[in-house]
Amino acid sequence: MTPLIVRLPNHLGDACMSIAALDALAAAGYALTLAGRPWIRSLFDAYPWPTVALTGSRRDHIHALNAAAAGARGLLFTNSFSTALEFRLAGIAATGYARGGRSLLAERSSVTLITGPSRTADIEMTLTIGVHGPARLIVLVCDSTPQTPREPRP
To answer: Cα(90)–Cα(72) distance, rounded to whole angstroms?
Structure first.
């Protein structure tokens, strides 16, 4: 199994919506370690993935990530420059959103990452699933060196 440290979103709802992507990554053979806010331990307690609670200063975050890395690659579900910087300084080659200078820090950058369908309830408390977001989820993880493009066939 390929080790992968996933930096979860900072907001509880966004972290919950990432579960479908995490399940797909695990099913594809990745040994996940989840990193994020301290509440991730209790939120993901029922899952088999180890967690790294990032507490204290940025320096503490970097030390915690470095200790958990052990040659793992990284995947950033966050959209902040600081989380990309933390992974870079922890020596973790990461893939994530290419915005706001993050592409300079990430080994590879993705255009967009949608983690799952939304859930919403109106004032009558009628739950609707999938109002925003994808109807289905496809996770594509490429772990190879980019090839030189070939000429198109006639």
So the answer is: 11
Structural domain for 55, as ranges: 2-116
- CA–CA distances in Å: residue 22 to residues 60, 65, 84, 144, 152: 25, 18, 19, 20, 35
Digit-coded pLDDT (tens) for 46-77: 999 999 999 999 999 999 999 998 888 889 88
- CATH number for the domain spanning 12: value is 3.40.50.2000
- Cα separation, 104 vs 63, in Å, equals 21
Determine the Cα–Cα distance for residues 149 and 146; give it in Å rounded to an integer.
Answer: 9
Q: Specify the amino acid at residue 39.
A: W
- The answer to whether the beta carbons of residues 16 and 39 sit under 8 Å apart is no
- The Cα-based distances of 24 to 80, 115, 149 in angstroms read 24, 11, 28
